[in-house]
Amino acid sequence: MTKNKIKKALYIEDEPYYRTIYGGELERAGIEMTYVGNGEEALDEIKKNKFDLIIADLIMPLMSGISFLKETQGKKLNTIVLTTLEGNEDREDCKALGVDHFLVKTETTPKKLLKEIEKL
Amino acid sequence: MKASIFCDPKKSRELWHDLLKYTTIFRYYVDMVHEGEFGGVPSNLEEPIMTLGAVATRGALFTRNISLLSKLELGSIKIQKEAIDIFIFLQESLARMQPLLAEKKLSSRLSHSTVFSLEVDRRHVAFLLDNMLYLIIALTTEEGEVEVKFTKMKRGIILEGKTLISEVTELDLKKMGEEDSLWSEKGQPNDLTLAAYILKTMSKKCGASFDLKKQKNKIIISYMS
């Protein structure tokens, strides 16, 4: 079980392999995971359900992570961006939209993601 | 003549995104198999899986380095120096490079007296540390030892390989990191010299110095900010 208060998380990720890699680790730690493939589906999901945490990819079809963050800006959602994009510019864009937790997949093992979540 | 899509920062960024995606997925899946997430690993498969882990780690680092090289050539690298607590970054980097240490049966030691911060770019600190570790691992003999030290006085990191592989000369080390050493005489890319080039170029951009030295049969790599 996780050592903190995160019980339910929404993972916005279009790549099924990443859902297995990261989502699987969080599920094994006892977090109830819901998966959607883009920002549009995520907007629908957060209307229907309450989540302790949202993990968002940035590059996705239909509605990107950045568009999702713009739509939800000001809603005080507990959000982690988990992306393959490594540039400072992407980090700054997310920060400007109120997201402080920006993790790069190439450096973030599933165990490191879990550790970061336990710190929230 | 149509310009290469690699010259378009936006298109290039998305191409690299996908390439990095596949190398990252490959690497983490091998880790998961190795850690027994899908059940125990039969003893006859332990060695091939360890080799796959090392290849996946090298592949992922090489891909990130070419991606960074492409950004350097496009001039789209933005450096933001800030004081970073380096200890956790080093621990994480050692964990990422574990498959390479394991493949060469190298022991590693992280020695420090006090935790201190280093003036680096947050987005590129993992790049720097992974490349430093990769270089020291590649240049150390099998079953050797790698030591990572901090030098608080000079605000830097020193990596020491206790036994340099015998084929590497002082001249080879001197050439590493120079642009013309990126390609071998046969015209093949070399991941080792690319790692050194990335280190040298990024250190320069951060106003730091990077050095590769031979001391008796030891190899010493330093980054001073």
Short description:
The complex is a heterodimer of chains A (about 120) and B (about 220). Chain A is of the alpha/beta class and about 120 residues long. Chain A contains five helices and five strands.
Overview of the structural elements:
The complex is a heterodimer of chains A (120) and B (225). In chain A, 42% of the residues lie in helices and 19% in strands. By secondary structure, chain A is of the alpha/beta class. Chain A is globular. The mean pLDDT of chain A is 91. Chain B contains seven helices and seven strands; from the N terminus they run ααβααββαββααββ. Chain B has helices spanning 9-34, 43-74, 86-96, 98-103, 125-139, 170-175, 191-205, and strands spanning 81-85, 107-111, 117-121, 145-151, 156-161, 209-215, 218-224. In chain B, the strands form two sheets. A five-stranded mixed sheet of chain B has the order 2-4-5-7-6. The radius of gyration of chain B is 18 Å and the shape is globular. Chain B starts with 8 loop residues before the first helix and ends with a strand. Classes of the chains: A alpha/beta (120), B alpha+beta (225). The interface between A and B is medium-sized, with 20 and 26 residues.
CATH superfamily of chain A: Response regulator
The succession of helices and strands of chain A, N to C, reads EHEHEHEHEH
CATH topology of chain A: Rossmann fold
Helix content of chain B: 40-55%
Which strand order does the major sheet of chain B show? 2-4-5-7-6
Compute the CA-based radius of gyration of chain A. Answer: 13 Å
CATH structural architecture of chain A: 3-Layer(aba) Sandwich
**Count of structural domains of chain A:** 1
Beta-strand residue percentage of chain B = 15-25%
Average pLDDT metric of chain B: 85
Mean pLDDT of chain A: 91
Write the SSE topology.
The complex is a heterodimer of chains A (120) and B (225).
Chain A: E1 8-12, H1 16-28, E2 32-36, H2 39-48, E3 53-56, H3 65-72, E4 79-83, H4 88-96, E5 101-104, H5 110-119
Parallel strand pairs in A: 1-2, 1-3, 3-4, 4-5
Chain B: H1 9-34, H2 43-74, E1 81-85, H3 86-96, H4 98-103, E2 107-111, E3 117-121, H5 125-139, E4 145-151, E5 156-161, H6 170-175, H7 191-205, E6 209-215, E7 218-224
Parallel strand pairs in B: 2-4
Antiparallel strand pairs in B: 1-3, 4-5, 5-7, 6-7
Helix pairs in contact in B: 1-2, 2-5, 2-7, 3-5, 5-7
